Description:
The protein has helices at residues 6-10, 15-19, 50-65, 78-88, 110-119, 136-146, 162-171, 180-183, 190-196, 207-212, and strands spanning 26-29, 39-43, 69-72, 93-96, 121-124, 150-153, 175-179, 200-202. It contains ten helices and eight strands. It has an eight-stranded mixed sheet, with helices on both faces. By secondary structure, it is an alpha/beta fold.
Amino acid sequence: MGISSYNEYRSHLTEIELKNSPEELYFEGNFCLIYEGQRVSVVGSRKVSPEGKVRAKIITKKLVEKSITVVSGLAEGVDTIAHTTAIEQGGKTISVLGTPLDKVYPKENKDLLERIKKEHLAISQFPINYPSRPANFPIRNRTMALISDATIIIEASEKSGTRHQGWEALRLGRTVLILENIAMDKSLKWPSEMIEYGAQVLTRENFDDILDNLPFLTAKMDYAF
């Protein structure tokens, strides 16, 4: 018998996790995905480069092969690729929305969201009729970091909102993985700053080793209650 409600889920959070968790969480789909097994967020730019698209697909496929649930935010670009690839590969995915469950952003992802609601899990901390605001998305990123054992950043500019998720994950003690090509990009300052605070560089050579030894930071959620 697993966790039956969000309130029960919150009762197993640490003090810092509880402080940074939404008081209410609305969902459609299989709530078990929020605590069963491991979850990794795959995030990045909305205007992702062609190379970034390929990397997002490859990494998502590898996560599915390891039976890891893929978490993302349903946004254009990397998020959409992560969700669709996970589904196509027969894996599981969680969409963490920056809108209420009855709104879709971008609207082109309407069918994708409906499929996730029916076959996977969609969650939002914003109630029906809650206004859409830019501030909703950094708040959403905190929740995405909270429910994930790790966050993988595919690519992000200096001004990308993706950076917020990386910092939130580090603050919560989660693993943050930055792709090697982004970490080595001298035009970006944020990767080196995150690495100084504990983020790791993800390469082709170390991918399997890191993912196979990923700290199960939400293991307390996987007990039978």
